Amino acid sequence: MTLLLERPAPVSQRHGRGFWLIAAVYLVALAFSTVPTPLYPLYQRTDGFSAFTVTVVFAMYALGVITSLVLAGHISDWTGRRRILYASLALEILAGVLFLTWTALPGLIVARFLTGLGVGMLTATATAYLLELHKAHRPEADGTRFEVVSSAANLGGLGAGTLVAGALAQFVTTPLRTPYVVFLILLALSVVAVAAAPETVDAPATRPRYRPQGVRIAGRDRVAVVVAVVSAFAAFAVFGLFTSLAPSFVAGALHHPSRLLAGLTVFVVFGAGAASQAVSGKIAPRARFVGGLIAQATGLIVLTAGMETASLAGFLIGGAIAGAGAGILFKSAVGTIAVNAPVAQRGESLAGLFLIAYSGLVVPVLGLGVATRYVPSTTSILWFTGIMLALLAGVASLGLRRGR
C-alpha cells in the first residue's frame, strides 16, 4: 500500500494565493472603517448631536490613523508584515466590540479612534506586502496588477463598507448593531487569511533602533515625491468629505433621509475611484495625471452646483466624477512612492505618504465642520471647493513643469 503525501505548493503559487488573501484582508479592514458613515444620521437622531460633532467623531478616526502611522506604520520593514496585520486586525475587532457594547457618544469616539489605529497600521503594511507578494509570484511582470489591486482594495473597501452598512441599516430591525456583527465575522476570517499568507520580510540580524515615523519619504526625484504627496492629500480631502458629512448633507440639505441612499452616495464616489484606477493602468503617466486633475476639479464644481440647486442627481454625478479623479491621483501617488523608494525603506515611505494623505481627511473636514456651525452647508461646500481648486491648480503647475 502506497501512501501519497501531498506536496507543498511551489513558492510562487503560495505567494500568488497570499497576494489575493492579503488583498481580501485589505478590502475587509478598510470596509469596516467606513461602516459608521451611513449610520451617522441615525446616531445624530438618537443622541441629538450636530454635524460638527460628526466631524469631531470622524476626526478622531483620522487622528487614530495618523497616530498609528507615526508610531507603527513603518516597523513592518523589520518586524514582518504579518505581525503588524495581526495587531491592526485585533484593534479593529476591539473597535467592533465597542460599537456593539458602548453606543453613547464617548463610546463612538473611542471606537472610531481604535479603528483609525488599526487602519493606520494596516494601510502602508498591506500595500508593501501586496507589492512583495506580487513580485515573488510574478517576478517578470510589471506593477500593473499590484497598482490596480492595492488601490481597488483600498478604495473599493471604503466604498463597500458604506454600501453594506447602509443596506443592512435600511432593512434590519437593529441598524446600529447588525452591520458591526457582520464585519466582526469578516475580520475574524481575515485573521485566518493572514495566517495562511507567506511572510515576505526577513528579520534583520540586528533590529534597528525604534524611532517614530517622521514624514520621511525616500526617493531621488524630490519633485515627483512632492507632487505625489500633495495629490494624495487632495484626493483624500474629497474622500474625507464623503466619509464624514455627505450622508448628513443628503439627509438634510437634499432632503433624502434613506440609510441605503446614504451608503450608496459614498459607494458611488469610492466605486468611481476604484473603477478609474482599474481602467487607467494603460494610460501614459502624464495623461493620467492631467486627467485625474481635470476630473477631480470638474467633479467638485458639479457637486457644488448640485448642492446649490438641491439636486441629488447633480450631487451624485459630481461626487462620482470627483471620486474618479481622486482615485487616479491617489493611484499615481502610491505607484510613484512604491517604485522609487529603496526596498529597505518601502514600508516607511508608504507610511509617510499615507500620513500626509490622511491629514487630508482631518484638516479640510474639520474646517467644513466648523463652517457648518456658522453658515449653511451649501456655503461651506462652496468654500471647500474653492480651496480645493486652488490646491489642484498648484499641483498641476508643479507636475506639468516637472514634465516639461
From TrEMBL:
Cross-referenced InterPro entries: MFS, MFS_dom, MFS_trans_sf, MFS_Transporters
Subcellular location per the Swiss-Prot or TrEMBL entry: Cell membrane
PROSITE patterns, sorted: MFS
Domain of life: Bacteria
Protein name from the UniProt record: MFS transporter
Pfam families named in the record: MFS_1
Gene3D superfamilies assigned: MFS general substrate transporter like domains (1.20.1250.20)
Membrane topology: Multi-pass membrane protein
Residues passing through the membrane, by range: 20-43, 49-72, 84-103, 109-131, 152-172, 178-201, 222-246, 258-275, 287-306, 312-330, 350-375, 381-400
Keyword Coiled coil: no
Organism from which the protein derives: Paractinoplanes lichenicola
Coiled coil: none
Principal subcellular localisation of the protein: membrane
Keywords of the record: Cell membrane, Membrane, Transmembrane, Transmembrane helix, Transport
